[in-house]
């Protein structure tokens, strides 16, 4: 059976799109490998009516809603997608659809410093809008990394949640202007290479440890966009796949939503993008239905 829509990725964007499409009585299948980006986090925040819910519970509720309207969920991974919209699954099967939504998200490339990966989502954080309230008024560190503009902005931003913020440039050589901005913001700067992030603070290569309750880092965001680029979807100057209104890519019949095309998108924004894409896809299929019927 050919589905109307194949949704690849079952996070907030993919599931919300599938929900809207299933309620529009479209035959929709969601393929997801069960490896959500926010799995390490204990709770999600900033999502109206879902604030404080665990990411796992949100996804479970979303899956239940999609299947309630007849949507199909497939626990697998799409290895390859051809221009006829046949998806080749890692498990060996294939799926064919009239349109595709790719919502495969991104991966966070973290600084290669001992303790960062181990504390990720708990004492090592990256989004103050997601976790700032939980560590408010506590000693906070911000670690400089490869994503220089992000971490410098982050150091100033995190100061909004605490009066005790220390920026560790690590291997970043700060300009005089950058130091002045941070100092004016009330952020203390501790120079020197960082050797490790522990459960109690930031350890410098010289042996000293600066006590911190939480440390914010700026990952390098790497989109999981191989399926999109494999189809020839146009890429912008920023290196990310370009999308138009509703998440349409340059390839007819292919849409993208969520972090796979937007690194700043938070959970609620990804869900909204999924909804917008679903409506655009349904309108696309509607026009096709009319042409076929004439």
Automatic annotation (TrEMBL):
FAD/NAD(P)-binding domain: residues covered: 3-273
Coiled coil: none
Assigned keywords, A-Z: Flavoprotein, Oxidoreductase
Catalytic activity: [thioredoxin]-dithiol + NADP(+) = [thioredoxin]-disulfide + NADPH + H(+)
Gene3D superfamilies according to UniProt: FAD/NAD(P)-binding domain
InterPro entries to which the protein is assigned, alphabetical: FAD/NAD-bd_sf, FAD/NAD-binding_dom, Ferredoxin-NADP_redctase_2
GO terms for MF: thioredoxin-disulfide reductase (NADPH) activity
Keyword Transport: no
Protein name listed in UniProt: NAD(P)/FAD-dependent oxidoreductase
Species of the source: Amycolatopsis suaedae
Phylogenetic lineage: Bacteria, Bacillati, Actinomycetota, Actinomycetes, Pseudonocardiales
């Amino acid at each position: 059976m050919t589905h109307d829509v194949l949704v690849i990725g079952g996070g907030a964007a993919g599931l919300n799109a599938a929900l809207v499409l299933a309620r529009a009585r479209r035959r929709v299948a969601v393929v997801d490998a069960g490896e959500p980006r926010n799995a390490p986090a204990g709770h999600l925040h900033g999502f109206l009516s879902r604030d404080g819910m665990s990411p796992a519970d949100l996804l479970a509720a979303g899956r239940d809603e999609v299947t309630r309207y007849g949507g199909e969920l497939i626990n697998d991974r799409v290895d390859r997608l051809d221009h006829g919209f046949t998806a080749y699954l890692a498990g060996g099967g294939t799926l064919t659809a009239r349109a595709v939504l790719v919502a495969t998200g991104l991966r966070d490339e973290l600084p290669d410093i001992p303790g960062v990966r181990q504390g990720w989502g708990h004492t090592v954080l990256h989004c103050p809008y997601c976790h700032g309230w939980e560590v408010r008024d506590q000693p906070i560190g911000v670690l400089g990394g490869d994503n220089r503009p992000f971490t410098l902005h982050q150091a100033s931003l995190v100061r909004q949640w605490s009066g005790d913020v220390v920026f560790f440039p690590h291997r970043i050589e700060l300009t005089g202007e950058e130091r002045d901005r941070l100092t004016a913001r009330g952020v203390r700067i501790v120079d020197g290479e960082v050797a490790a992030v522990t459960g109690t603070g930031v350890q410098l290569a010289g042996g000293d440890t600066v006590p911190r309750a939480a440390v914010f880092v700026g990952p390098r965001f790497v989109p999981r966009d191989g399926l999109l680029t494999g189809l020839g979807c146009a890429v912008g100057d920023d290196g990310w796949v370009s999308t138009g209104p509703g998440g349409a890519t340059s390839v007819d019949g292919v849409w993208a939503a969520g972090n796979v095309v937007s690194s700043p998108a938070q959970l609620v924004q990804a869900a909204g993008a999924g909804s917008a894409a679903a409506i655009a896809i349904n309108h696309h299929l509607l026009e096709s239905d009319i042409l076929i019927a004439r």
